[in-house]
C-alpha cells in the first residue's frame, strides 16, 4: 500500500504520525464523528484509492460520465451514489463501496468515450487530507482512442462514420472532441483534423476554423459526393486520407467509392412464391433446350379469313391448340416427374403465361384438346383479364401439364423459359419475323424453344414433339382433324 | 484508598457481567474477556421456549466473528469490482449486508455438519473452508479456483458444503436428503438448508418439510428473508410473510438477521433441538442485501436508495457489531482497524491472484466429467473428434 510513496510523501507520513505527540491535530470534523471512526494515523498516506470506470452492463465498452453527484472533498458513505454514467443501454449510477472522501475527479462530467477500467477519480480514506492525494502520472488526460485508419486501399462501407470521427489530436484538454458539424465538414472535404489549427477553448477545433481553412483553399471539395441523391450520412473516405497526398489536388473519381444508392423493393407474396419455385425448378430440374422455326404464313392467313367472318382469334390460340394436338399425339410429353419416375398425365391442361404487374401468372386452359379455337380464345382472354385483376381462383392456376410462354408481342426473337414444376416442358414462343424462304419468297418465321425436363422428356422425345408441333403450326388442318 | 475502591469495583464487574449493563462495565476495565448483550426478541412458532434474548460472547469469539464478517464484506465488494472491470463474467450474486446470517449460523455449527444453500454462496463457500483466493480465482476462471475455474460463481463446493445451486428452491429437498444420510449414518450431525424469501413459496420446500418432520430428520431449514425476491417485495409475493411459521407442523423461530449474536444463539438452539432427535426446525433470518439481486441488477428500480442507505446506517451488521465490541470493551477501535487492514490485505492478495493467475488449457475442457473412471475418449464437438478424458 505504501509501496509507491516518494520521499516527500514519506516525510509527510512521519510528520503525520508525530501529530498526536505534538498535539497539533485538528479537531475531528463533525462528519467523522457521525460514523464514529477515529482518526487513524496508522493509515496516513496520500495514496488514493483508484476509482475505475465500471462496466455497468456486460456489453459496455465505454460510457459517458453525465454528472458527478459528489464534489471533491465530499465525504462518501458506502452505498452513496458517486456519479451518473451513461452506458450503451441506459443511465446508471455508480455507487461507492466504502466510506471515503472523494479526493480528485480526473474525468470531468460530460466526457464521453471513457473506456471501462480507466481511471476516473481518486478516493482517500476518511480523515485524510484529500488535497494531498497523489495523482498517478498516467492519468493526466484521457488517452485518445487509437485512430485506426485503413491504409490498404480497400473500399470502406458506409457504416464507418465512427472510424473517421475517432481521429483526434491531443493538443489541449478538450482537444479530442470534434462536434458533429466539424466532423461533417472534415468528412465532406476529406480533411484531417490535424491539418487545421484549432482556435477554440482548450484547443478545440471549431467549425469556423474548418470553414476558414477551406476558404483559404485548403482542400478541394469532392464534386461527386454531393450528387443528386441526398445521403443521410456523409461518406467517410478514410482510405484517401491515408493514401492521398496532402489536399492540394484531389484525384479523380476512379478509386473513390460511389455511394451505391439503391432502394429495396419489398417483394409481393406472389413474387416471393415465384422466386422460390423458379429457383427450386432451375436448381433441381435438368433443363434441356430444343428449338425450331415455324412458318406462320398459313396461320396468319387463316386468322385473317376468320377475322373477315367476325371471329377473333389470336396467333396464341393457334399455338395452344397446336401444342395440345402434339401432346395428344405424343402423350409421353404430357408427363411430370414424380420424384422417382415420369408419370403420364391424362388431361391436357395447358398453362398460359400472363404478365401482370404482380408477377408472371400461368392460368390454365383446361382440356385444351377438347376445345375449339374460339373457346380457347375466350378462355384465355377471360383468364388473362382476371389474372391482371388478381381474381383467379386457386384451381385456375395450379396444375396444368404443359406451359406456353409467348413473348412475341415484345419483339423477342428467341428465348428460353424456366419449367414450372411439376410440369415437364415449357414452350417459349418468339415473335414472327419476315425472312426469305429458299425460293426467295417472303415468309413469316417464328422461333420456338422448348425447355424440357430431361428426366421425363429426353432430347429425342423433345425433338419428335417439336416436329409434330411444327407440322401442326404449318398445316393448321391437322389441328381439327387429328 | 481510591485505588482499592476501583479494584473492588473492577472485581464486581468481572464477576457479574451477566447482571450489570454494558455501559457500567466500561469504566472499570480496559479489555473484557466476555460481554453480554440483549438482542431483539425471537418470534416462536409452535415452540414453548426459544433461544435466550441475552447473549454472551467471548472476546476471541467476537473477534473471530467480526473478522469473518469483514472478510465476506470485502470479498463480495472485490468480486463486484472484478465483475465491473469484466474480469468476472456470467452471474455474480453478492452477499453484502447478509454477513451476519452466515457467520452466525456457522458459529453454531459443529465440525461435520453439512450445509446447502442457493446461489448467493460466496460467503458460505468461504466459511465452509474455501480460501478467499480460491473463491476469487474461481470467479475469474483460473486454474487455482476451487473448481479449477470450470465452474464459476454458482459451482463452488467443498467438504460438507453442497453448493452453490442455481435452481430456485431445489437445494431444500437436497438438504433434507443430506440430513437423511447423516441420520442414517448414525452421526449426530445436522444439515442446514438455506433458501430465500423468493424460494419460500416453492412447492418442493413443503415436500421437504413433510418428509423431514415425518422421519424426524436433523435438518434446519433457514429462510434468509432479505425482503426482495429478485425485484419483488415480499408483500407482493407471499400471502403470508411469516416465513418461520410456514412450516406449519414444523416449529419455527424468527431471528433478527442483522445481529450476528442473535443468529448464533438461535442456531445453537435449533442445532440442539435437532440433535436431540426432535426433528426439523424452520428458522427465518430477517436480513437485507445492499446490492441488487445480481450484478445485472442495480438494485434501485424496486426500492429507493434512501431505504438502502438507511439500513446501511442503522442496521449494518458489521458496524453494529463493531460498536458493540468497542463500547463493551471487548476490543478497541484500533485493534479492529488492524483487523480490517489484515482483511484488506488478504482480499487484495486474492484479487491479485484472481487477475494474474493462469487459466486451464483447452484440453482440460474434456476432463472431470465422471468421477473415478478409467481413462476414455470423450467425443468432441462433432462425431469425428475425440479428446482424452484424463490429461495425466
TrEMBL record, chain A:
This enzyme's EC code(s): 2.3.1.-
The cross-references to Gene3D superfamilies, in alphabetical order and at most eight, read: 2.40.50.100, Chloramphenicol acetyltransferase-like domain, E3-binding domain
Its recorded name reads: Dihydrolipoamide acetyltransferase component of pyruvate dehydrogenase complex
Keyword Transcription present in the record's keywords: the answer is: no
The record, for CDD domains, names:
lipoyl_domain (cd06849)
Query: What processes does the entry annotate via GO biological process terms?
Result: pyruvate decarboxylation to acetyl-CoA
Q: Where is the Peripheral subunit-binding (PSBD) domain?
A: 177-214
What is this enzyme's class at the first EC digit? transferase
CC cofactor = (R)-lipoate
Q: Which family does it belong to?
A: Belongs to the 2-oxoacid dehydrogenase family.
Q: Where is the Lipoyl-binding domain?
A: 48-124
Keywords from UniProt, A to Z, are: Acyltransferase, Lipoyl, Transferase
Q: Kindly list the GO molecular function terms attached to this UniProt entry.
A: acyltransferase activity
Pfam families in the cross-refs:
2-oxoacid_dh, Biotin_lipoyl, E3_binding
Which is a Gene Ontology cellular component entry for this protein?
A: pyruvate dehydrogenase complex
Q: Which PROSITE patterns is this protein grouped with?
A: BIOTINYL_LIPOYL, PSBD
Q: Keyword Cytoplasm: yes or no? A: no
Name the species this protein comes from: Patiria miniata
Automatic annotation (TrEMBL), chain B:
- Gene Ontology MF term list: pyruvate dehydrogenase (acetyl-transferring) activity
Q: Enumerate the InterPro entries for this protein.
A: DH_E1, PDH_E1_Alpha_Subunit, Pyrv_DH_E1_asu_subgrp-y, THDP-binding
Annotated signal sequence range: none
Which cofactor names does the annotation list?
A: thiamine diphosphate
Q: Which GO terms describe its biological process?
A: pyruvate decarboxylation to acetyl-CoA
Transit peptide is among the record's keywords: yes
What is the reaction catalyzed? Answer: N(6)-[(R)-lipoyl]-L-lysyl-[protein] + pyruvate + H(+) = N(6)-[(R)-S(8)-acetyldihydrolipoyl]-L-lysyl-[protein] + CO2
CDD domains of this UniProt entry?
TPP_E1_PDC_ADC_BCADC
Q: What is this protein called?
A: Pyruvate dehydrogenase E1 component subunit alpha
